[in-house]
Amino acid sequence: MILFIKQSALSWSDKFAIKDESGEDRWIAQGDVLSFAHFLRVYDLSGKERATIKEKWTSFFPKHVVQAGFESFEIVKEFSMFSQRYDISGIGWSVAGDFLAHDYTIEGEGQVIAHMTKECLSWGDSYRLDIISQRDELPALCVALAIDCTNHD
User: What is the CATH number of the domain that holds 80?
Assistant: First the structure.
């Protein structure tokens, strides 16, 4: 499954349109307008809130807490000199990215969960998220959105 994540460039808050490979709308992510920390809500097409992504300022490294249905997990950026690494506690995933922070691989238990690539030459941030299993769609999307928030801090 492939998702295309496109950030709206002309918005007072973080706003993302998420489409599938056929160009159909799949999800909407919307941030709070007057918030010092990132706080995103992910909605399905019926308008039902399916997940929240909240930035925590309680640690030296960026941390986001995700609540997606009954799942709750934390995404913490790790210290690394020449790459970007994230630990995702609660679901046993990890993320490794390249030096320029435009290419990431999400892994769990030695298996690739998803691959995220930033699209160049677009108005606003745009990402392609290749997800191996559809059951990982919402958590992988939340990880991708948290990484984008971290890169903008």
Answer: 3.20.90.10
**Among 45, 42, 46, 33, which residue's Cα sits nearest to residue 69?**
42
The total of structural domains in the chain comes to: 1
How many whole angstroms from its chain centre is CA 38? 12
Which domain does 85 fall in, by range?
A: 2-151
Confidence (pTM): 0.89
Q: Can you give the pLDDT of all 153 residues of the chain as single tens digits?
A: 999 999 876 655 678 999 999 999 999 999 876 656 679 999 999 999 999 999 887 667 789 999 998 889 999 988 877 788 999 999 999 999 986 768 999 999 999 999 999 887 666 678 999 999 999 999 999 999 998 888 765
Owner of token pair 């995700």: 66
d(Cα 8, Cα 85) in Å, to the nearest integer? 26
Helix (H, G, I), strand (E, B) or coil at 149: helix
